[in-house]
């Protein structure tokens, strides 16, 4: 694994350069725009054709029968079902604390102000298909939506010749998904955004996918809301000489195995630790089943940066704003205030990143590619909308009317001023 020894300024410049290397793929943008236009015009017929062309599956009905879902749930091995239920319980207990309510105040005589918090009516969950199966992502997406009060959670996933993965169906039932449709790719995003005869239109689309799915989400944003434009997975680790190189290497590889473009990163003031972790990464790669993917990630995207001290390590990680951040130093949680930009933080030797992927409870749908500077993890607040309300008595309006008309006329909006004066 590449070890970088440079001044802090040089390291900072390298981080900035890497973050600015956002690929622009106009050919994909054009292909996705064409798919969206086709689905808008031809609806289910377009979806049927894309299933044949892209997935090599012929479907007479996109909707997965409830009997199929129930059968998958009933056949789920007991230990796997217990693990899913544990994850559900912890995700629920964590996200319940995010539930927020509206308010009303009457602090001024004759004036009532307030805010009403309401759930979105319908949301769409995209679940990748193929060889991938992410039941944990279904739980992470659907449970906060249910807690927010969303009534309709529509799941789409690419059709499979042998049927949808049964664990995916089990997780969907456990999480309270309303309906599952066998549609994938950019065409599934288009169907959720605009609706077809079979697939209902939703208010928000969430969930991971390939570059076509991500591009489609970006193009339909505004017609519907989206969770975020997610990039490849990232893990950043801050560690000192007290950390265990074997465990650090295992944590770096836990994210490297996701994708050849995943970014495993370690920042440490110890050159000795850096060298030991690099050697451990090489050793552990030899027995990792997804070694080809992880090796490409480590060699092309990963790095170990050696800095002067822990303060520089935190400053550099705040600039990177990683999706996942592990802090592997003594009394790690005491450094909480030094963390400004990160999606999810894991403190101490026992808090390995996969803990957050599955059962701890905090969400694993997180901002990537530096967007933790301004985005937050998925949660209950992503599934509600707020409406403001105001009521004034005539006397209360009269008290503030001169200020209103003065401001309106400064802005050149005489009609605004006259609307107030009409009530005097």
From TrEMBL:
Source species: Agrilactobacillus composti DSM 18527 = JCM 14202
Gene Ontology terms describing biological process: L-histidine biosynthetic process
Known EC number: 1.1.1.23
Binding site for Zn(2+): 255, 258, 357, 416
Residues of the active site: 323 (proton acceptor), 324 (proton acceptor)
Gene Ontology terms: cellular component: cytosol
Residues engaged in binding NAD(+): 126, 187, 210
Gene3D superfamilies per record: 1.20.5.1300, Nitrogenase molybdenum iron protein domain (3.40.50.1980)
GO terms assigned for molecular function: histidinol dehydrogenase activity; NAD binding; zinc ion binding
A Pfam family that the UniProt record links to this protein: Histidinol_dh
UniProt record similarity statement: Belongs to the histidinol dehydrogenase family.
Keywords: Amino-acid biosynthesis, Histidine biosynthesis, Metal-binding, NAD, Oxidoreductase, Zinc
UniProt catalytic activity: L-histidinol + 2 NAD(+) + H2O = L-histidine + 2 NADH + 3 H(+)
Designated name of the protein: Histidinol dehydrogenase
CDD domains, A to Z: Histidinol_dh
Amino acids binding substrate: 233, 255, 258, 324, 357, 411, 416
């Amino acid at each position: 694994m590449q070890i970088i020894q440079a001044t802090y300024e040089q390291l900072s410049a390298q981080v900035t350069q890497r973050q600015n290397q956002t690929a622009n793929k106009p050919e994909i943008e054009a292909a996705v725009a064409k798919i969206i236009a086709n689905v808008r015009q031809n609806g289910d017929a377009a979806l049927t054709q894309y299933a044949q062309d892209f997935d090599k599956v012929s479907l007479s009905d996109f909707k997965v029968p409830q009997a199929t879902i129930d059968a998958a749930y009933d056949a789920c091995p007991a230990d796997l079902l217990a693990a899913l239920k544990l994850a559900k319980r912890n995700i629920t207990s964590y996200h319940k604390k995010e539930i927020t309510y509206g308010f009303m105040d009457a602090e001024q005589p004759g004036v009532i102000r307030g805010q009403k918090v309401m759930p979105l009516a319908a949301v769409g969950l995209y679940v990748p298909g193929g060889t991938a199966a992410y039941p944990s992502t279904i739980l992470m997406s659907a449970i906060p939506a249910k807690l927010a009060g969303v009534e309709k959670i529509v799941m789409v996933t690419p059709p499979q010749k042998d049927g949808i993965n049964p664990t995916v169906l089990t997780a969907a039932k456990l999480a309270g998904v309303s309906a599952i449709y066998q549609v994938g790719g950019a065409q599934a995003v288009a169907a959720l955004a605009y609706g077809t005869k079979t697939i209902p239109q939703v208010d928000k689309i969430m969930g991971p996918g390939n570059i076509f799915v991500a591009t489609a989400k970006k193009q339909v944003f505004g017609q519907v809301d989206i969770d975020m434009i997610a990039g490849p997975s990232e893990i950043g680790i801050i560690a000192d000489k007290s950390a265990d190189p074997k465990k650090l290497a295992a944590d770096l590889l836990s994210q490297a195995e996701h994708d050849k473009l995943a970014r495993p990163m370690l920042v440490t003031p110890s050159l000795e630790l850096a060298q030991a972790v690099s050697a451990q990464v090489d050793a552990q790669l030899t027995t990792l089943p997804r070694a080809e993917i992880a090796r490409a990630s480590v060699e092309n995207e990963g790095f170990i940066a050696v800095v002067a001290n822990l303060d520089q390590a935190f400053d550099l990680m705040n600039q990177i704003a990683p999706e996942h951040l592990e802090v592997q130093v003594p009394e790690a949680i005491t450094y909480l205030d030094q963390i400004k930009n990160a999606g999810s933080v894991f403190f101490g030797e026992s808090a390995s990143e996969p803990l957050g992927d599955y059962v701890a409870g905090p969400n694993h749908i997180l901002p990537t590619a530096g967007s933790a500077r301004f985005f937050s993890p998925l949660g209950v607040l992503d599934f509600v909308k707020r409406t403001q309300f105001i009521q004034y008595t005539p006397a209360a309006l009269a008290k503030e009317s001169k200020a209103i008309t003065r401001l309106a006329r400064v802005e050149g909006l005489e009609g605004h001023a006259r609307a107030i004066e009409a009530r005097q």
